[in-house]
Amino acid sequence: MDRLAEFRKWKVQCLSKADLSRKGSVDEDVVELVQFLNMRDQFFTTSSCAGRILLLDGGINGFEVQKQNCCWLLVTHKPCVKDDVIVALKKANGDATLKFEPFVLHVQCRQLQDAQILHSVAIDSGFRNSGITVGKRGKTMLAVRSTHGLEVPLSHKGKLMVTEEYIDFLLNVANQKMEENKKRIERYIIFPCYSYMPRSSLKTLIHAIFSL
Q1: Which of 6, 57, 145, 165 is the most exposed place for a label (fewest CB within 10 A)?
Q2: What pLDDT does 33 receive?
C-alpha cells in the first residue's frame, strides 16, 4: 500500500471510531476548526480539548497528579466561580489540586510539509509549544500546544490548606488564562466565508482564515 492510500485508510479508521473522551464530543469552541481540518484531504484530528479548569482529588500520596488515578471533583470549559470550587472541595478526601489546562490539538498530516504549514500557523497564533513528530511508519503528527497552564494544590488529606480569599485569587488567574486561551483559539476559528476564498495555496488560505 502506498503512503497516500495508507493515510486515507488511517483517516477513515480514526474518524469512524467512537469518541472515548470523558465528555464524549468535541468541545464547542473548537468544533468548527476540527470539522474544517477533517474535511481537508491533508489532515485529520485525533484528539482535542478547547481548554478547561479542573479540580482533581489525587489521593493521599503527595501532590503529583495522575488524572487516570484520581477523582474529578469539577471540570468546566468556561470561567469558574469560587462557590463551585468550595462546594467541590467538600468532596475531597486526599490532595485536591486546581488546574488550568490550555487548548491542545493533535492532527495527523498526510505529508511533512502539510504539518509544517499548520505548525507555522500555530506558532503565529501563540501556541509556541507546538511540535511535529514523524513515526517509523511515516505517521506525521502535529501537536498544537501552549505553555500557559496552572497547577496549584489546595488541600491535603481532605483538609483545606489555603484561604477562600486565595482560592478566589487563583480563580481570577485561571479565568484570565482561559480568556487568553480563547483569544488564541479565535485565531483558528473558521468562518463560513472561507469557502469563497482563493484556494490556490493552502498556506495562503489557512493564514487568511486563522490570522485574525
Answers
A1: 165
A2: 86
Q: Give the N- to C-terminal CA distance of the chain in Å, as an integer.
A: 40
Taking CB atoms within 8 Å and a gap of at least 24, the contacts of 71-78 are 72/22, 75/22, 76/52, 77/27, 77/28, 77/29, 77/50, 77/51, 77/52, 78/178
Grid cell digits, residue 141 = 503528527
Give the pLDDT confidence score for residue 184 in this predicted structure.
Answer: 85
pTM above 0.90, yes or no: no
**Alpha-carbon distances, residue 196 vs 199, 206, 208 (angstroms):** 9, 13, 12
Report CA 133 to chain centroid distance, whole Å: 18
Residues in the chain: 212
- With a cut of 90, say whether residue 137 has pLDDT above it: no
Residue 126 pLDDT class (50, 70, 90 cuts):
confident
Extended beta strands in the chain, E state: 43-49, 52-57, 71-76, 96-101, 104-109, 131-134, 140-144, 150-153, 155-156, 159-160
